[in-house]
Amino acid sequence: xxxxxxxxxxxLATFVAGSALGDEAIEPTYTVKISMxxxxxxxxxxxxxxxxxxxxxxxxxxxxxxxxxxCAERWPPFFAPEIEVPPELNVTDxxxxxxxxxxxxxxxxxxxLYRYFEDKAPGDVLGQGLGGVxxxxxx
Length: 139
What we know:
Protein name: Lipoprotein
Number of strands: 7
Number of domains: 1
Oligomer: single chain
Mean pLDDT: 86
Organism: Methanothrix harundinacea (strain 6Ac) (Methanosaeta harundinacea)
Low-confidence stretches: 1-21
InterPro entries: Lipoprotein_repeat
Radius of gyration: 21 Å
Helix content: 10-25%
Structural class: alpha+beta
GO biological process, one term: alkane catabolic process
Order of helices and strands: HEEEHEEEE
Strand order of the largest sheet: 4-5-6
């Protein structure tokens, strides 16, 4: 009887301790995830919620970024050494390319990914449509 009581108490203590940690303890940390905008619909963001963009002057699957020098200052290349994504995304859609400056850049379905320097808060989409060549990334 004592062993059943101890076993029940141990189970209860484990359950209470796990519950006290809340959902944050079991939520994975993603390097890329999906955000939503009423006008744009779903789009990709980095792990901190900053919007990711593609550049129409890039050629997908070419292994090269067309955004260099001054362009790369306004549109910093996005790079994550390891990609963790929610179930709605497929990790095999992500890859990487070397840049001419020796750094690396993450790609999505062959397109190099960028952030926009004017986006200051998670979910900002100030780069959407700029110059007719910058677009948020639809999943």
